[in-house]
Amino acid sequence: MIDQFQSIGRDLFVAGLISSHGGNMSVRMGDRILITRRGSMLGRLEERDIIDIGLDENDANVTLASTEIVVHRAIYQSTAALAIVHTHPPYAIAQSLVRDEIVPIDSEGSYLLHKVPVVSAELTAGSVEVAGLLPQWLKEYDLVMLRGHGPFAIGHLLEEAYQLTSVFETTCKILTIAEGTGRAVKEYRKGSERYESW
Predict the structure, then answer these.
(1) CB of 155 within 8 A of CB of 83?
(2) CATH number for the domain that contains residue 170
(3) Are 185 and 177 in contact (CB under 8 A)?
(4) Strand runs (DSSP E) across the chain, as ranges?
(5) d(CA 151, CA 88)
(6) What is the dihedral of CA 136, 137, 139, 141, to 10 degrees?
(7) What is the domain count for the chain?
């Protein structure tokens, strides 16, 4: 399992989806969670950076776990997720500041994401507010964007959640570049009107 955390963490950093000490990841294993350590560098994870903690109850490791532990727990308790990736990708964050939903215009983003809701919270990092808000959205979507902060992606594996995160940031980059041309986007996809009502 440490190999998976290390490889995905390194990929997240190399792809520019997190800053040096940003983001967090976790995996559910029955009634336990493996989650990255508070303040760890995802691009350089060591075995000591993966914290084993209860799904429902705190233990001695709670002070070591990511500050987002309350959010990860809430997601696992309310959805079928077995892995969570949370990042701070710049293009996605920029788009979240001007949109209430992000509808991809590129082919890959359209196929994998369809539409991504943007939700707001006054306290964005590791708050009870976010823990109460995100699970309801993640029952319908595999990735939800927290305005100004970053996406939470779920999957059965860390790689699946990472793929969605990577595609989402690419989608937001394409949106930003297309908007920068000042030209109207030409529709090319059959049935694209369905993405708006997903």
Answers:
(1) yes
(2) 3.40.225.10
(3) no
(4) 24-29, 32-36, 50-54, 83-86, 101-102, 116-119, 143-146, 150-155
(5) 7
(6) 180
(7) 1
Segment 63-75, tens digit of pLDDT: 899 999 999 999 9
What is the chain's length?
A: 198
Fill in the amino acid letter for 126: G
What is the residue range of 150's domain?
Answer: 2-197
Cα(18)–Cα(97) distance, integer angstroms: 18
Once rounded to an integer, what is the mean pLDDT over residues 172-192? Answer: 92
Helices (H), 47-187: 69-78, 90-96, 107-113, 128-138, 158-180
pLDDT tens-digit map of 143-159: 999 999 999 999 999 99
Indicate the helix (H) or strand (E) that contains 10.
helix 2-14
Which one, of 116, 107, 108, 94, lies nearest residue 176 by Cα?
Answer: 94
Question: Could you identify the residue written with the tokens 């994401």?
Answer: 113
Who contacts 190 (Cβ-Cβ below 8 Å, separation ≥6)?
none
